[in-house]
Amino acid sequence: MADTPASLQTGWRISKACQECRKRKIKCNGSNPCKTCHLRNTPCIYRDVIRQRKRKHQTNRDSDSFKSEVTTHSGYGAGPRSPGLPSRRNPSNNYTINNSVSATHVESPSCKVQLYYGSTSNFALMHEIYRDLVSNQTPGLEKPHGEVEEARASLDMFSFRRIFFGTPDEPKESIKSCKSMDMPVMFLPRELANLFLRRFLSTLYTLIPFRSKESFEQQLEHLYNPVPGARSETWGQCMLLLALATGALGTEHYRWGDVLYDQVKATCGPLDDIHAHYQSEQGRPNSSFLHLGAASRKALSAGLHKEAPSQGGEPTDSVQERRLTFWSLYFYETWFCFHLGRPSSLSLRDVGIELPENPFLCTLTYVSKIIARLADEMFGHHHDSLLQMWRLARSITDDYRPYEMQMQQAIGVNLDTCPQQGTLGVQQTILTTIYYHTVLLTFRPFLIFRGRWQQDMKDPSQHGSNRPTEAPAWLNEACNKALGASCRTIQFLSEAAVANEFVRELRYHGYFLGSASFAIIYDLMHGKDLAPTHLPWIYAALQSLSTMREGDPIKSTITAIQTVLRKLNPAYEWVPPKAYNNTMGQQATTARPYSSDIPNPQTQSIPEPSLPGIPLQPLQTSNGLPILSEFQNNSLQAALNPPSGSLGSGEDLLDLTLSDMGWDFDFSTMDLETFFSIYPNGETPTG
């Protein structure tokens, strides 16, 4: 039945394939030599004996029985492995390019909390780094693994348990004497209340603008100067106190944040969207995720995702308020779930409401749509090869090309504009960091893949195999995109923290700096002689973090980065310059943030850069922060946006399949979440 119309329509099926293509399980064009063998310069041999395959009805029957046992997965969930797939004959080659992590926290004998974070989370990359640190210290500990890794040991090594589980870093100071909102809130001085509200309206208000600034100011006036006989608005006062609590976190009076937050929780229940912003600023991602999930369900149950039915002259302000509320929630839910590696509760398929008139929020919504596509197509589907994933990643980043123009139209600046002051600077920072962080997460799997490959090539037993010994150009390009996005994040936040106090005191920026630093650290661990080019960026991130007030999540991020640097080489640890003053609003004198004689792990001295033009020392800005103009001899913008077609057509590129790497299972049976992931059979070794 080889001549049936169905078989002729496929266009790519041929009657034969060479042995090399069969072994690698890649497409063969049937020529002699075929295209693949010609590119690889390998012998092109065709076998004489035709293999007898199953009949079509047998194949369909087997396929149906297989599908009945496998449930469709979505989001970041890992589909179960088929019982019909053969086990690995080469169990020692366990490579992780995107793993998930889980850990358990016992608060009391009756309270046991287990949390999961997916492959796009910062915790997953930190656990990758932990595994490599431990495997280098005690080789031969790796064993066959499952889908999700136990992260207990890595959390303890990096002192990151508080962030993972969202436990407070100090005892709460709650005021329990306030029983109702009708009681005048005179425990907070009016001057501080004004300060907290101004700070909120200048920063995070831009993400939740569903009430006007004037309404918050009027609510504050009514709170301190109530009109006799006037009826108090409980929900309005709750929103005001949450706004004050969030604004307090960016000041030296930050302890008022939890006081006000506890007052709201004890009085009027959850205002989940604002709760989520407060908890993320406090370094409690799981709590933010839960609040956002609750807010999403409430929005759906209230029908905010659909246009409201006409009610005879409904004011325009009410319509815009609905749209602002839903789309601000949609952005925060989509983005926050993505960077935690968890499925989102909101889908564009269900949305039937127009965009708001707020251009800044429209730009964030555009980003959300790209993130939703990335989460679904890149991290939620099966992939046949790494090259296929790279093509998809490039396709997704192509969607970002109109982004800079939208950013320019929304706030009047673009990605290359120097950091601005005031509220404009906050909006600029949000749009810039979200962009670069999304690019980083898009290409981070390739960085992890290359690191695993480089680590495996250090094994002498791999030198005599048929495996490629050099990474193809497209893989290096993908890794450069991830590293370039990391450096751009550090550079922008370091400069913005000096130019804008509002930006410096937004606690969540510590997450972006930490994520970028760990990506650079991962590449530093697996590359050769990279200390001169990589360490200055890590030190720049640490110095920027050190200008923020102490406490979590900043303290835990600095501790984790310093721990990794010490484990790699004690001389890599960052030492804050003595001349640097951490006091708010004061700038440092020009000082070098790291010693110029950092020894290399192998040579105990920094080698000269192998490529011309790589600066050994960082350029100094006016505030003493090290900012490099180039990375790996490539400008950052060029690394993020290479010329179209710079690597030739996709058909001419060298692919990497599992058989190329000596891995004995099929790409198409694994999704990116579970691809190469591990689960220790025994106790996870501690460092």
Automatic annotation (TrEMBL):
Q: Which residues form a coiled coil?
A: none
InterPro entries under this entry? Fungal_SecMet_Regulators (IPR051127), XnlR_reg_dom (IPR007219), Zn2-C6_fun-type_DNA-bd_sf (IPR036864), Zn2Cys6_DnaBD (IPR001138)
Q: Which domain of life is it from?
A: Eukaryota
* Region feature (Disordered): 53-98
- The residue ranges crossing the membrane are none
Composition-biased stretches, type Polar residues, lie in 89-98
Q: Extract the Gene3D superfamilies matched here.
A: Zn(2)-C6 fungal-type DNA-binding domain
Look up the record and give one Gene Ontology term from the biological process aspect. positive regulation of transcription from RNA polymerase II promoter by galactose
Keywords (A to Z) from UniProt: DNA-binding, Metal-binding, Nucleus, Transcription, Transcription regulation
GO MF entries: DNA-binding transcription factor activity, RNA polymerase II-specific; RNA polymerase II cis-regulatory region sequence-specific DNA binding; zinc ion binding
One term under GO cellular component: nucleus
Instruction: Return the Pfam families for the record.
Output: Fungal_trans, Zn_clus
Which residue intervals define the domain Zn(2)-C6 fungal-type in the entry? Answer: 17-46
Q: Name the PANTHER family on file.
A: REGULATORY PROTEIN GAL4, ZN(II)2CYS6 TRANSCRIPTION FACTOR (EUROFUNG)
- Please state what the protein is called: C6 zinc finger domain protein
